[in-house]
Amino acid sequence: MAHAIRFYETGAPEVMKWETVEVGEPGAGEVRVRHEAVGLNFADTYFRSGLYPAALPAGMGVEAAGVIQAVGAGVEGFKEGDRVTYTGSPLGAYSTERVMPADSLIALPEGIEFETAAAMTMRGLTASYLLRRIHPLKAGDTVLLHAAAGGVGLIFTQWAKLLGITVIGTVSSDAKAEVARAHGCDHVIVYTREDVVARVREITDGKGVPVVFDSIGQSTFEISLDSLARRGLLVCFGTASGPTPPINAQMLAVKGSLYVTRPALADYIADPAERAELAGELFSHVEAGRIKIGINQRYALEDAVQAHHDLESGRSIGSSVFTV
After folding, report:
1. Are residues 154 and 235 in the same domain?
2. What proportion of the chain, given as a percentage, has pLDDT over 70?
3. Can you list the positions of beta strands (E) in the chain?
4. What residue numbers bound the domain in which 239 lies?
5. Which residues pair with 58 in a beta bridge?
6. How many domains does the chain fold into?
7. Is residue 213 domain-shared with residue 190, that is, in the same domain?
8. pLDDT tens, position by position, 78-99
9. Is 274 domain-assigned?
10. What does DSSP say about strands 142-145 and 166-171: parallel, antiparallel, or unpaired?
11. Which PANTHER family does this UniProt record tie to the protein (predicted)?
12. What is the pLDDT of residues 184-209, one digit of tens each?
């Protein structure tokens, strides 16, 4: 029998339940996938807590990698036995197998292991669109990245190094600072004891940075704005500390004619051609060893409650996966 994590109400990690489920056969445009590894992402906690709405009861998770077991009518480009990965599909990735839309899938090269794919499909595609679509960054630019030792951060800094971009990263501890440096972060600020804005100004000779990438949200919003150069861009792509505060347009003018954007990965992979392009570049770097994907935490799927506690407490470093 197949198993899955489901939740019937929003709240703390304990609302998630490990259950036996009936999977069934794929319908038109669908496939049945047997998971080999499942991704654990901070966004999962948003659905569980209710920050992101979901019709209840619901499955959990949007990222996994595995093998196609059955193909429904009208599916093109995939067949039984194909290795695939995905992110952004309907909730339900925390499962041993599932039926899902075929158009959510991305073909997984033989040179990338399932655990690696589950650890980096969402994070890697996020780093991809942040670096390749949001702003015309060029070699020699300096940017500020919060959570530099997180799953996205470790991929972002390695990719930025390939592009000749200097990264100033913030972290919460010396241990995380070491990890960030090891993955190419040029300047690391331990925000629990250092003044982030002052350090950014010092590193940039008082100018500030043209772009700040902020996945933290509420607690870093003012810091991010004050770290920007004139006409700089704040990219709010996560809310780990809570929702981004309301934006005062006059304040943006006073602080240097600043810009703010709140992108979502879904809008950068909605077009199949663009998704394939972003994934192709990501996969090529990983296969060639130019970007390394470290998995620092592994959990059994039935231990999702503990995994979410670890994630929300800040104990996790880099990427985490569930083994199936």
Report:
1. yes
2. 100
3. 2-7, 16-21, 30-40, 58-59, 63-71, 83-87, 97-101, 105-107, 142-145, 166-171, 187-190, 209-214, 228-236, 259-261, 295-300, 319-323
4. 135-262
5. 7
6. 2
7. yes
8. 999 999 999 987 899 999 999 9
9. no
10. parallel
11. QUINONE OXIDOREDUCTASE PIG3-RELATED (PTHR48106), QUINONE OXIDOREDUCTASE-RELATED (PTHR48106:SF13)
12. 999 999 999 999 999 999 999 999 99
